[in-house]
Protein backbone atom coordinates (compact mmCIF):
# COMPACT_ATOMS: atom_id res chain seq x y z
CA UNK A 1 0.00 0.00 0.00
CA UNK A 2 2.97 2.30 0.33
CA UNK A 3 6.44 2.64 -1.05
CA UNK A 4 9.56 4.32 0.15
CA UNK A 5 8.57 7.73 -1.16
CA UNK A 6 5.47 7.69 1.01
CA UNK A 7 6.84 5.60 3.84
CA UNK A 8 8.49 8.56 5.58
CA UNK A 9 5.05 10.11 6.06
CA UNK A 10 2.41 9.06 8.54
CA UNK A 11 1.64 5.35 8.33
CA UNK A 12 -2.04 6.22 8.87
CA UNK A 13 -2.14 8.42 5.77
CA UNK A 14 -5.43 8.99 3.98
CA UNK A 15 -5.08 6.34 1.28
CA UNK A 16 -8.46 7.19 -0.28
CA UNK A 17 -7.12 10.67 -1.03
CA UNK A 18 -3.80 9.26 -2.23
CA UNK A 19 -5.46 6.74 -4.55
CA UNK A 20 -5.92 9.11 -7.50
CA UNK A 21 -2.19 9.84 -7.80
CA UNK A 22 -0.84 6.61 -6.30
CA UNK A 23 0.09 5.09 -9.66
CA UNK A 24 2.21 8.10 -10.60
CA UNK A 25 5.12 6.53 -8.71
CA UNK A 26 7.06 4.31 -11.14
CA UNK A 27 6.96 1.24 -8.89
CA UNK A 28 3.26 1.74 -8.09
CA UNK A 29 1.64 2.17 -11.47
CA UNK A 30 4.25 0.12 -13.39
CA UNK A 31 3.47 2.24 -16.46
CA UNK A 32 7.05 2.24 -17.75
CA UNK A 33 7.58 -1.01 -19.72
CA UNK A 34 11.04 -1.54 -18.24
CA UNK A 35 9.85 -1.07 -14.65
CA UNK A 36 6.87 -3.30 -15.31
CA UNK A 37 9.11 -5.94 -16.87
CA UNK A 38 11.48 -5.85 -13.90
CA UNK A 39 8.66 -6.45 -11.43
CA UNK A 40 7.13 -9.15 -13.64
CA UNK A 41 10.44 -11.02 -13.75
CA UNK A 42 10.90 -10.84 -9.99
CA UNK A 43 7.32 -11.91 -9.34
CA UNK A 44 7.68 -14.86 -11.69
CA UNK A 45 10.69 -16.05 -9.69
CA UNK A 46 8.90 -15.63 -6.34
CA UNK A 47 5.54 -17.22 -7.21
CA UNK A 48 4.93 -20.90 -7.96
CA UNK A 49 5.27 -22.03 -11.58
CA UNK A 50 1.84 -23.64 -11.54
CA UNK A 51 -1.37 -21.62 -11.38
CA UNK A 52 -1.91 -20.76 -7.71
CA UNK A 53 -4.16 -18.84 -5.38
CA UNK A 54 -2.44 -15.58 -4.38
CA UNK A 55 -3.58 -13.25 -1.60
CA UNK A 56 -2.24 -9.75 -2.29
CA UNK A 57 -2.37 -8.00 1.09
CA UNK A 58 -2.38 -4.21 0.97
CA UNK A 59 -2.87 -4.49 -2.77
CA UNK A 60 -3.24 -0.77 -3.41
CA UNK A 61 -4.37 -0.16 -6.98
CA UNK A 62 -3.64 -3.76 -7.95
CA UNK A 63 -0.46 -3.43 -10.00
CA UNK A 64 1.19 -6.56 -8.56
CA UNK A 65 -2.17 -8.33 -8.63
CA UNK A 66 -2.36 -7.65 -12.35
CA UNK A 67 1.12 -9.06 -12.94
CA UNK A 68 0.23 -12.19 -10.97
CA UNK A 69 -3.01 -12.60 -12.91
CA UNK A 70 -1.16 -12.18 -16.20
CA UNK A 71 1.11 -15.02 -15.10
CA UNK A 72 -1.89 -17.30 -14.68
CA UNK A 73 -2.57 -17.01 -10.96
CA UNK A 74 -5.92 -16.50 -9.25
CA UNK A 75 -5.75 -13.34 -7.14
CA UNK A 76 -7.58 -12.07 -4.09
CA UNK A 77 -6.59 -8.52 -3.18
CA UNK A 78 -7.26 -6.80 0.14
CA UNK A 79 -6.80 -3.12 0.95
CA UNK A 80 -8.12 -0.86 3.69
CA UNK A 81 -8.92 1.90 1.19
CA UNK A 82 -12.18 1.58 -0.78
CA UNK A 83 -10.80 3.99 -3.39
CA UNK A 84 -7.73 1.80 -3.91
CA UNK A 85 -9.93 -1.29 -4.18
CA UNK A 86 -12.14 0.42 -6.79
CA UNK A 87 -9.07 1.20 -8.90
CA UNK A 88 -7.78 -2.37 -8.53
CA UNK A 89 -11.13 -3.81 -9.61
CA UNK A 90 -11.10 -1.59 -12.69
CA UNK A 91 -7.49 -2.48 -13.49
CA UNK A 92 -8.23 -6.21 -13.35
CA UNK A 93 -11.70 -6.18 -14.90
CA UNK A 94 -12.30 -9.47 -16.67
CA UNK A 95 -9.43 -11.24 -14.86
CA UNK A 96 -9.62 -14.09 -12.36
CA UNK A 97 -9.40 -11.70 -9.42
CA UNK A 98 -11.47 -10.56 -6.45
CA UNK A 99 -10.82 -7.44 -4.36
CA UNK A 100 -12.01 -6.86 -0.82
CA UNK A 101 -11.95 -3.87 1.50
CA UNK A 102 -10.36 -4.91 4.77
CA UNK A 103 -7.54 -4.75 7.27
CA UNK A 104 -4.20 -6.11 6.08
CA UNK A 105 -3.51 -7.48 9.55
CA UNK A 106 -6.65 -9.64 9.39
CA UNK A 107 -7.77 -10.04 5.75
CA UNK A 108 -11.51 -10.76 5.52
CA UNK A 109 -11.18 -14.06 3.64
CA UNK A 110 -13.02 -16.35 6.05
CA UNK A 111 -11.93 -19.98 5.80
CA UNK A 112 -10.30 -19.56 2.37
CA UNK A 113 -6.64 -20.61 2.17
CA UNK A 114 -3.96 -19.62 -0.33
CA UNK A 115 -0.75 -20.86 -1.89
CA UNK A 116 0.91 -17.45 -1.57
CA UNK A 117 0.49 -14.40 0.63
CA UNK A 118 2.09 -11.49 -1.24
CA UNK A 119 2.80 -8.28 0.68
CA UNK A 120 4.69 -5.20 -0.52
CA UNK A 121 5.61 -2.35 1.83
CA UNK A 122 2.79 -2.99 4.30
CA UNK A 123 4.14 -4.97 7.26
CA UNK A 124 6.15 -2.02 8.61
CA UNK A 125 2.94 -0.01 9.06
CA UNK A 126 1.25 -2.64 11.23
CA UNK A 127 1.51 -2.98 15.00
CA UNK A 128 2.89 -6.28 16.30
CA UNK A 129 4.39 -7.63 13.07
CA UNK A 130 5.18 -10.99 14.69
CA UNK A 131 1.49 -11.58 15.36
CA UNK A 132 0.56 -10.42 11.86
CA UNK A 133 3.07 -12.81 10.28
CA UNK A 134 1.62 -15.71 12.30
CA UNK A 135 -1.85 -14.79 11.07
CA UNK A 136 -0.71 -14.56 7.44
CA UNK A 137 1.09 -17.90 7.75
CA UNK A 138 -2.18 -19.38 8.99
CA UNK A 139 -3.86 -18.31 5.74
CA UNK A 140 -1.53 -20.55 3.73
CA UNK A 141 -2.09 -24.10 2.58
CA UNK A 142 0.59 -26.62 3.55
CA UNK A 143 3.75 -25.82 1.58
CA UNK A 144 2.61 -22.27 0.87
CA UNK A 145 4.85 -19.26 0.87
CA UNK A 146 5.01 -15.71 2.17
CA UNK A 147 6.44 -13.22 -0.33
CA UNK A 148 7.37 -10.09 1.60
CA UNK A 149 8.82 -6.99 -0.08
CA UNK A 150 9.99 -4.57 2.59
CA UNK A 151 12.74 -2.10 3.43
CA UNK A 152 13.95 0.78 5.57
CA UNK A 153 13.43 4.31 4.31
CA UNK A 154 14.54 7.76 5.41
CA UNK A 155 17.76 9.07 6.92
CA UNK A 156 16.66 11.47 9.66
CA UNK A 157 14.01 9.20 11.14
CA UNK A 158 14.22 5.84 9.35
CA UNK A 159 11.09 3.73 9.19
CA UNK A 160 10.59 0.18 8.03
CA UNK A 161 11.85 -3.28 8.91
CA UNK A 162 15.47 -4.30 8.35
CA UNK A 163 15.95 -7.61 6.56
CA UNK A 164 17.66 -9.26 9.50
CA UNK A 165 14.79 -8.36 11.83
CA UNK A 166 12.19 -9.72 9.44
CA UNK A 167 14.20 -12.91 8.97
CA UNK A 168 14.27 -13.35 12.75
CA UNK A 169 10.51 -12.85 12.96
CA UNK A 170 9.99 -15.47 10.26
CA UNK A 171 12.36 -18.04 11.76
CA UNK A 172 9.74 -19.72 14.01
CA UNK A 173 7.29 -19.95 11.07
CA UNK A 174 9.35 -20.82 8.03
CA UNK A 175 11.19 -23.96 7.07
CA UNK A 176 13.10 -22.19 4.31
CA UNK A 177 13.70 -18.52 3.52
CA UNK A 178 15.31 -16.76 0.59
CA UNK A 179 16.48 -13.15 0.75
CA UNK A 180 16.91 -10.95 -2.33
CA UNK A 181 18.42 -7.49 -2.04
CA UNK A 182 16.54 -5.09 -4.32
CA UNK A 183 18.17 -1.70 -3.71
CA UNK A 184 20.64 -2.03 -6.59
CA UNK A 185 18.00 -2.87 -9.19
CA UNK A 186 17.14 0.62 -10.47
CA UNK A 187 14.57 -0.75 -12.90
CA UNK A 188 12.32 -1.84 -10.02
CA UNK A 189 12.09 1.70 -8.68
CA UNK A 190 12.50 3.75 -11.85
CA UNK A 191 15.53 5.46 -10.33
CA UNK A 192 18.58 4.85 -8.18
CA UNK A 193 17.84 4.35 -4.48
CA UNK A 194 20.25 4.30 -1.55
CA UNK A 195 18.05 2.81 1.16
CA UNK A 196 17.46 -0.82 2.11
CA UNK A 197 14.93 -2.63 -0.06
CA UNK A 198 14.60 -6.38 -0.24
CA UNK A 199 12.30 -9.35 -0.74
CA UNK A 200 12.07 -12.28 1.63
CA UNK A 201 10.38 -15.45 0.37
CA UNK A 202 9.51 -17.88 3.16
CA UNK A 203 8.18 -21.42 2.72
CA UNK A 204 5.82 -22.19 5.58
Question: So what's the oligomer here?
Answer: single chain
- Main pleated sheet: 8 strands, mixed
**How many helical stretches?**
9
Strand content: 25-35%
Could you give the order of the helices and strands?
HHHHEHEHEEHEEHEHE
Global structural class: alpha/beta
Percent in helix: 25-40%
Which overall shape is indicated by the principal axes computed on the Cα atoms? globular
Please give the radius of gyration in angstroms: 15 Å
Residue runs with pLDDT of under 50 for 5 or more positions: 1-12
Give the CA-CA distance, first to last residue. 24 Å
Can you offer a commentary on this structure?
Strands 1, 2, 3, 4, 5, 6, 7 and 8 form an 8-stranded mixed β-sheet that branches. Helix content is 34%, strand content 26%. It is built from 9 helices and 8 strands. Mean pLDDT is 90; it is low at 1-12. The protein is α/β, with parallel strands linked by helices and 204 residues long.
Task: Give me a quick take on this structure.
This protein is of the alpha/beta class and 204 residues long. It has helices at 4-7, 15-22, 26-29, 33-46, 63-70, 82-91, 129-138, 163-170, 186-189, and strands at residues 53-57, 74-79, 97-101, 114-120, 140-153, 159-160, 176-181, 196-203.
Itemize the secondary structure elements and their pairings.
Blueprint: H1 4-7, H2 15-22, H3 26-29, H4 33-46, E1 53-57, H5 63-70, E2 74-79, H6 82-91, E3 97-101, E4 114-120, H7 129-138, E5 140-153, E6 159-160, H8 163-170, E7 176-181, H9 186-189, E8 196-203
Parallel strand pairs: 1-2, 1-4, 2-3, 4-5
Antiparallel strand pairs: 5-6, 5-8, 7-8
Amino acid sequence: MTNGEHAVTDASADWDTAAASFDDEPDHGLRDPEVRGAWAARLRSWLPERASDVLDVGCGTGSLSLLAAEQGHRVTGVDLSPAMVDLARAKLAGRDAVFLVGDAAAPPVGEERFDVVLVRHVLWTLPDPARVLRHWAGLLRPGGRLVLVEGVWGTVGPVGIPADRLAALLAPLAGQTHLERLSDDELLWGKAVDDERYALVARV
